[in-house]
Task: inverse folding
């Protein structure tokens, strides 16, 4: 489909190079898996990535945020700037895989596959660096902290200029998918994840002894009414042809059975697809929560805790990724995954530049690699890693040679 891929000897050399780095890249992945770090605390992880990129001769820019980094691989020839982003953080999950390279950090685990993403990222950097003489433009490698913890690590990096100097023209990322068999990838044109608005609700009443409710403003009873009332946002206030969800995930308040609590704290998230609904939801939530509080004599604050735009993948970039995968794996399957009400802060980059986040199949039931994201026994089929960096490398190389003529 492209001059790059039709150059058979070069293509063969690339495939051989992809095989040659598989062992060290798998070792890197296992090392990262053993030492997972929570969001915004990825110091050791960042150092590991920095060393890997510096070995390739890349000038690494760190310190834009406490963790995370970016580095350019510059061909010195005019051309577009293609960015590749990996997330780097792990989760507060106690690993139960029984793997020989299981997490050595109690209560922390790479249960979302970000260790795989980093291995793919470094594998891609190594291959692109090896074939730099064949490339034009530049590739920017972005290692982003705190994907798992809203408001996410993407915005601070974007604010620090990670998409500028020179401007990034197109951006790529992938996410492992335990619902997709190893040997397949997933792409979806347009919206993949919806818009998210996270919020906290603070209900302030007046504490009193259980026997004297008339002297109290029962924050727990008010919170219960608010929780019920917020069910009406989606069911009664939003046109049912537009998908939306409001979920309240935590409630905290009270210390003893015989004390009416004076304060309750609720954490929630609202998600929607239609931009008009997305704009409307925070106001509806606030109006209902504050209104219920006012009626019952409590002060209610609704505190925004960050918002993500919908994650929108460019069909042209998806086409390039699918083309690269097909050239490498003619028998591999390309699936279209479903739209889900999930969130991913890669959406913040896609709000500025076109690109895609494609899915990398890692499922293989025979080795137990069929647990969902964030599960304590989350396992991937590691053969996916080579598929990931080979596809990413070819897609990036293809975009370097072909993107500007399409986009400009
Ligand atoms: Ni993830």
Result:
């Amino acid at each position: 489909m492209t001059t790059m891929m039709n150059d058979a000897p070069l293509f063969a050399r690339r495939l051989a190079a992809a095989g040659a780095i598989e062992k060290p890249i798998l070792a890197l992945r296992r090392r990262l898996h053993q030492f997972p770090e929570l969001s915004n605390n990825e110091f050791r992880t960042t150092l590991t990535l920095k060393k890997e990129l510096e070995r390739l001769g890349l000038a690494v820019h760190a310190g834009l945020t406490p963790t995370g980094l970016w580095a350019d691989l510059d061909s010195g020839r005019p051309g577009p700037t293609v960015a590749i982003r990996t997330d780097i953080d792990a989760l507060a999950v106690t690993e139960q895989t029984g793997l020989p390279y299981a997490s050595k950090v109690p209560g922390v685990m790479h249960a979302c596959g970000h260790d795989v993403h980093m291995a793919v990222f470094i594998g891609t950097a190594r291959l692109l660096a090896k074939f730099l003489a064949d490339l034009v433009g530049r590739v920017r490698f972005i290692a982003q902290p705190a994907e798992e913890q809203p408001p996410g690590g993407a915005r601070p990096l974007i604010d620090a200029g990670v998409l500028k100097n020179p401007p990034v023209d197109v951006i790529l990322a992938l996410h492992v998918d335990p619902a997709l068999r190893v040997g397949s990838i997933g792409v979806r044109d347009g919206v993949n994840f919806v818009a998210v608005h996270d919020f906290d609700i603070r209900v302030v009443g007046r504490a009193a002894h259980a026997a004297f409710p008339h002297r109290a403003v029962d924050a727990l009873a008010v919170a219960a009414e608010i929780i019920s009332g917020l069910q009406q946002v989606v069911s009664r206030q939003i046109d049912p042809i537009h998908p939306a969800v409001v979920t309240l995930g935590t409630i905290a308040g009270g210390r003893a059975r015989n004390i009416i609590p004076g304060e309750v704290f609720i954490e929630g998230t609202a998600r929607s697809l239609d931009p008009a609904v997305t704009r409307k939801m925070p106001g509806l939530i606030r109006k209902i929560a504050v209104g219920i509080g006012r009626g019952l004599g409590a002060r209610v604050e609704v505190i925004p805790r960050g918002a993500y735009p919908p994650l929108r993948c460019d069909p042209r970039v998806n086409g390039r990724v699918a083309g690269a995968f097909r050239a490498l794996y003619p028998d591999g399957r390309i699936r279209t995954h479903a739209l889900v009400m999930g969130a991913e802060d890669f959406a913040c980059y896609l709000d500025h530049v076109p690109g895609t986040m494609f899915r990398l199949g890692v499922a293989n039931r025979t080795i137990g690699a069929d647990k969902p994201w964030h599960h304590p026994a989350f396992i991937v089929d590691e053969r996916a890693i080579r598929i990931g960096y080979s596809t990413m490398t070819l897609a990036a190389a293809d975009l370097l040679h072909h993107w500007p003529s399409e986009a400009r």
The chain has a mean pLDDT of 95. The chain has eleven helices and 16 strands.
